[in-house]
Design goal:
single chain; alpha/beta; three-stranded parallel beta sheet; six-stranded parallel beta sheet; TIM Barrel; 241 residues; 9 strands
Length: 241
């Protein structure tokens, strides 16, 4: 049986998740870290946990966080320079977490290049309460445009069920569960949905959704959770990017 840590060895993690695909580690451009020094400190925490590649994904939302590829890539360059100067050996890349709204649909219609990672993976989120009317249309149009969609933290949406998650996945969308969800950080119901998704093998990625040092600590705790072990036995795409 897979064991996450050896007996009486300070709960040492033997099977770390070495690549994270969802975080907010570029300073001052969304609700994540605020300063360059905070960014470096949090990245250092994640590196100590065993991460070797961090694909950070700032929010892009036309109303709240009107980021652009230029803004994101410029901040990425600052962080990379600071890491190199401090000899912190972790690879940092950047994509984005796109909010599904009319502005994103318009970007698709205009064939505007979107920030992706790995095999043209496009991370997106929706509003938390009500399923967007355009969700299925977005899935069809983005997939037809050549993007491999990754649905950020489906377990957190009030409208989500295991059956709906399975239907979305059957439409070709990969599903990414947040590590804090495994701990009940958001709510017990969100934790239970995350567990059910893992039990049903409906999880393709794990992501830290790391915004600050507290989230990094949650990631460490989540690595010791029994459902993290179950998830690590799934064919997660984290291992292939």
């Amino acid at each position: 049986m897979l064991s996450l840590f050896s007996k009486k060895q300070s709960q040492k993690i033997e099977y770390p998740l070495t690549t994270d695909i969802h975080s907010h580690l570029l300073p001052g451009i969304d609700d994540g870290v605020k300063t360059l020094e905070e960014s470096i400190a949090v990245i250092s925490q994640l590196a100590e946990l065993g991460y070797r590649k961090l694909i950070t994904t700032p929010h892009i939302s036309s109303d709240r966080f009107p980021n652009t590829p230029d803004i994101i890539l410029s901040k990425l360059a600052e962080v990379r320079t600071a890491l190199e100067e401090r000899n912190i050996l972790v690879k940092v890349e950047a994509a984005a977490e796109y909010y599904l709204n009319e502005a994103l649909m318009e970007r698709l219609y205009q064939n505007e290049p979107l920030l992706t990672f790995g095999k043209n993976y496009l991370l997106f989120e929706t509003n938390f309460m009500v399923e967007p009317f355009a969700l299925k249309d977005f899935i069809f149009k983005a997939s037809s445009a050549g993007y491999q969609l990754v649905f950020a933290h489906p377990e957190r949406y009030a409208y989500m069920t295991v059956e709906k998650a399975a239907d979305i996945r059957d439409r070709g969308v990969l599903l990414q569960v947040n590590l804090p969800s495994l701990l009940g950080y958001y709510s017990k119901s969100i934790q239970q949905l995350a567990y059910k998704m893992i039990d049903k093998r409906l999880v393709d990625f794990l992501g830290s959704d790391c915004h600050n040092a507290n989230y990094a600590a949650l990631a460490k705790e989540a690595h010791l959770n029994k459902y993290f072990v179950k998830a690590m036995n799934l064919p997660l795409h984290n291992h292939n990017i």
